[in-house]
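Give me structure tokens for this 172-residue protein.
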Amino acid sequence: MEATSSKKYLRISRRKIARVGKECIGKQIKQVKAQLGFLPNESARELFKLLKSAESNFLVQNPNFNPDELFVLDISVNKGPSFKRIIYRAKGRANRIEKKTSHVKVVLGDKLVEKKAGKKNDKKSEAGNASGKAPSKEEAKKASEKRVEKKALESGGTASKQEARVGDVGEK
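Here you go.
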């Protein structure tokens, strides 16, 4: 179960909010509220308001749920439009000032869900080493042989190992 809350056209730059929001993801809402309450910047106050709103949205959907068990699943901060202003300078010049805005979305849930591994981890586990470390030379060699055999079967012919390893590095 999830609940969201969003605020658009917030008059704080994206980087300032993202810096605070990055520290909140994956923690319990009780802990995040305590941290945000002690931060002195405006972005912490705005995120605190959004968290309260998302929490109340969740409790409207699930009235019998304990709010202390909620987790912050995601905080996405996107760039909004910039207000262009001019500041006048000496000798008839003018400089442009951009007042940046941002769009913030907070997602709360009752369970913490781990993100799936990226493509890099899939290649490493394909080589036979699922611990996340780079595969050894032997494991890499076995994985490349498997790929060669697989390509040969897909193409319908039987390719020799010499032909397939033309592009492989370190196999000389």
